[in-house]
Amino acid sequence: MTLRRIGHLRYLFEDYALDTDRRELQRATDVIVVTPQVFDLLDYLIRNRERVVSKDDLINAVWNGRIVSDAALTTRLNAARSAIGDTGEKQRLIKTLPRKGFRFVGTIFEDQERAVGSASLATHGGEFGKMPSSAPRLSIVVLPFANLSGDKLQDDFVDAITEHLTTDISLLPDYFVISCRTAFAFKGKIVDARQIGRELGVRYVLEGSVQSGTDRLRVNAQLIDAESGAHLWAERFEQATGRSVRHAG
Amino acid sequence: MQDEIIARLARAMDVQLVAAETRRLERKESKELDAVDLSLRGWTVFFKKVSVAGAREARCIFEEALRIDNTNVDVLMGLVETHL
Fold it and tell me: Which has the closest alpha carbon to B67: B29, B39, B25?
């Protein structure tokens, strides 16, 4: 099986990593969920860490120059600080320079990750260049399946199904599958497939639900094209259990 | 017990996803196709045309893929399947 990762840049500081291609903020092995604007703000501050960036610079970079209130900027800045374990009082990583602007003052290491995988990856250059998004082919995220049984006790069983399914799909040849850990950050949230696709760098989103009773297990699944938002396929799988699913999990 | 239903789901989804990727390939020039592209196309033909002719057509595509990359597992699996 080939791994499909495109070479990309990560900024490392303390035990955090800002992965610009996957649009992920990671701490050790965890992914910290931040809103797109907070991510852009961190990204901009880190890229321009050699200088003080003004409020206008930030607004231009994060809001495309739209008019935003100081409060909106302060809120995003606080969220950015809190995501990387900093506060407005400490200003350990993001410093406010009164009437001048802001600067990222942490020590950054740039990690240019090599493209790993099959030798044929080299021939992909043209393909990625032409496509509207950089998501590799056969790239997918399995979102946590919803528990429709109305029984909270079944939550773990449903999560186990999502994990098991993610593993099964990742074993399919040439697939690029987002890890369960990352996918579970979206648990219980209403999210747009296209936004997830952009944030995680995948072309497809699989979502579904599980209904389990004492006599049967029913799993619904649907596949969505994350670039167009179109539903590609939906199907219901049913199986008689003849015993309580709770014990089977 | 749930393993079976998950395996069925993964298989069915794989067929759909491979077909979706093959549709995207139509926009691409044939000389730009690499081994994985050809393998996707081969599997789509194989899944869609469950017949001797379908298997033969798929086999030709897998053989073309093999000439580009003779280490791709998916291509090799396709060749095995189409010879059965």
Answer: B39
Contact A115, A5 (CB under 8 A): yes
Chain A residue numbers with beta carbons less than 8 Å from the beta carbon of B34 are: 120, 123-124
What interface predicted TM-score (ipTM) does this complex get? 0.82
The superfamily (CATH) of domain A131-248 is ABC-type transport auxiliary lipoprotein component (3.40.50.10610)
Query: What residue in A sits closest to B4 (Cα-Cα)?
Result: A239
Q: What are phi and psi of A184, to 5 degrees?
A: -70, -15
* Contacting residues of B for A235, CB less than 8 Å apart: 9, 12
Nearest CB among A161, A169, A172 relative to B2 is that of A161
| Whether the predicted model's global pTM rises above the 0.80 cut | no
- The full set of domain ranges for chain A reads 8-110, 131-248
Look at B16 and A165 and tell me if their CB atoms are within 8 Å. Answer: no
Domain B2-83 of CATH type 1.25.40: yes
Of A59-68, A126-135, B41-50, where does mean pLDDT reach its minimum?
A: A126-135
3 state SS of A83: helix
